[in-house]
User: Which sequence fits this backbone?
């Protein structure tokens, strides 16, 4: 027993040294492994369920990734963005066509349908036989039911070659079925919205692409002396990309440019009050129409649609900026005199406003219009300055910009 005790006691220092050395080398080895792999990914997954995302807790350089830790959807976001990336160029089994519309790169070009229309289709039969005719033009009116008689008179001035689209700002839609033509019209309803709000959201250039010309009209227009087919003929004859009918000169006009002339089919230039026109080829002396009854060619509208601001719903300022979509604007923007209309100036939409601070509804609407005009001008001027500065160009050489 004594021998065993002495023997164990004599080996104790060696055993302790061995343990210390083993521990030391273990720590060093672990440190080297840690340096080689600085990011530790601890993944907890539930393989029995595919309804919940994998939660990644990433430790990087001593910090827990807070965004990843707090958002269980992070891995899903990564997958979503990566799905839009081009496949490996060596992988010939995948389709990737950069010239396709954005988001459709993975589809074969022959299958992509980038444009649509407002043609009504049947729920039965052969799709190829749905359309007995395809209207070439589109006319839109932003309407309230109180103006139904005036709109009825307007619609009757447009042939079957026009698709009729009504934007309802008062929410009353079904009542319009008292008119037979209304049953074949397109109806879109959103309360207390303007025609430019509707235009930005429902007249995307790819939706109205089949139409050669798009009429975007107010509801308070007298059309006794107007014929849409004759108007189109004159627009084509004189090469107008943006136009409007002449306005009856005795009904409180603001601008000389849009006043009807009795001695011409079309005019493209006028004289205004002294000091109003810095250049005879610029608005309001030329390259100018008002926003109550504009008519756009397909190509012109594709540009103008992008000019409309989402939050500026009244369209004030557009009339002075339309020229930026056409070149040369003073030759391709004009007023059709021989097909003319009367602006009745019925403040129906103005009455859709709300009384605030003792002001009448229409007063608040008018103030918003003026404010939007200033905002539109400032945004456009700022964007142009930024463009020219970034491009290193001199804006004084930009043809009236």
Assistant:
């Amino acid at each position: 027993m004594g021998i065993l005790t002495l023997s164990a006691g004599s080996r104790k220092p060696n055993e302790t040294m061995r343990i210390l050395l083993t521990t030391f080398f273990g720590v060093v080895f672990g440190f080297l492994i840690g340096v080689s792999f600085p990011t530790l990914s601890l993944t907890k997954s539930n393989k029995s369920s595919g309804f919940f995302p994998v939660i990644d807790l990433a430790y990087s350089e001593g910090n827990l990734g807070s965004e990843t830790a707090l958002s269980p959807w992070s891995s899903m976001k990564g997958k979503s963005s990566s799905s839009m990336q081009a496949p490996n160029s060596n992988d010939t089994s995948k389709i990737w066509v950069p010239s396709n519309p954005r988001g459709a790169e993975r589809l074969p070009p022959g299958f992509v349908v980038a444009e649509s229309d407002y043609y009504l289709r049947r729920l039965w039969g052969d799709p190829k036989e749905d359309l007995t005719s395809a209207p070439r033009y589109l006319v839109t009116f932003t309407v309230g039911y109180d103006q139904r008689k005036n709109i009825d008179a307007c619609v009757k001035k447009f042939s079957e070659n026009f698709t009729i689209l009504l934007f309802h700002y008062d929410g009353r839609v079904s009542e319009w079925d008292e008119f037979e033509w209304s049953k074949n019209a397109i109806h879109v309803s959103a309360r207390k919205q303007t025609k430019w709000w509707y235009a930005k959201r429902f007249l995307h250039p790819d939706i109205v692409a089949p139409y050669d010309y798009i009429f975007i009209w107010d509801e308070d227009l007298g059309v006794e002396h107007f014929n849409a087919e004759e108007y189109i003929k004159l627009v084509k004859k004189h090469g107008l990309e943006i136009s409007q009918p002449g306005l009856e000169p005795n009904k409180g006009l603001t601008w000389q440019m849009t006043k009807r002339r009795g001695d011409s089919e079309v005019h493209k230039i006028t004289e205004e009050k002294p000091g109003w026109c810095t250049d005879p080829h610029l608005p309001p002396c030329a390259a100018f129409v008002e926003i109550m009854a504009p008519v756009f060619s397909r190509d012109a509208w594709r540009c103008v649609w992008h000019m409309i601001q989402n939050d500026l719903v009244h369209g004030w300022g557009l009339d002075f900026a339309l020229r930026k979509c056409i070149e040369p604007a003073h030759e391709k923007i004009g007023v059709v005199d021989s097909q003319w209309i009367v602006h009745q100036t019925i403040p129906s939409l103005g009455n859709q406003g709300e009384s605030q601070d003792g002001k009448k509804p229409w007063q608040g609407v008018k103030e918003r219009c003026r404010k939007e005009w200033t905002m539109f001008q400032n945004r456009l001027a700022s964007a142009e300055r930024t463009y020219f500065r970034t491009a290193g160009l001199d804006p004084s050489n930009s043809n009236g910009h």
